[in-house]
Each structure stands twice: as structure tokens, then as C-alpha cells.
Amino acid sequence: MKKTVLFSILAASAVALSTPAAAQHYGGYGQRYPYEGRQLQLEQRVQRLAYNGRISRQEYRVFQRQFEHFDRLQRQYRRGGIDRWEARELDAQLDRIQRQIRQERREDRYDRRW
């Protein structure tokens, strides 16, 4: 019971903190930074998994650190303009995070069968 309440509070605070960032998102064809939308989508997916208790607090923190690392890297690349290599690196990093999320979801489904 305490775990459920803790995850609920954690998820609610994460959503509250990400709301201002979502309001600044540049969508559609005029999007300034193309990775923002994809990153936001992945972060929301992780928040839902944490809220539903499908990932542990530790796993949630690992994802949060990965998103923070991605933010730092993206800011660093933006300073001089993002070249092709840097764009591929950013894409690859989001791909890795997305694969990890899928893996967590698969493991959760496997655990529920038993």
C-alpha cells in the first residue's frame, strides 16, 4: 500500500515538474529542436510505468539520469550547431532509451504470467 502511494506521489510530482517543459515544446513543422518531442514522449512513458508500478524506483531513477545526460549532451551540441554526427548520436541515445523501456515492459509482462 505504501509503495503504491509513494509511486503515485512520485508520478504526480514528475508530471507537475514536466508540465512547464511541455508548455515550451515547439510542435509541428516549426519545431525548433526535433528531439524534444520524442524525448518528452519517452519521459511520459517512463512516468506511466513508474505510476503503474511496472518499474521500480531504482529503474525510474536510472531513466531519469539517462534523460538528464541526454539534455546535457543536446545543450552542448546546440552551442555550435548540431552536425550530422551529433544528430546521429542523439538519435542513437534516444533509441537506446526506447529499447530499454521496451525491455522493461517485456520483463513486466513475463513476470505477470507467473
Automatic annotation (TrEMBL):
Keywords: Signal
Protein name: Zinc resistance-associated protein
Signal sequence interval, chain numbering: 1-23
Domain of life according to the entry: Bacteria
Record organism: Brevundimonas balnearis
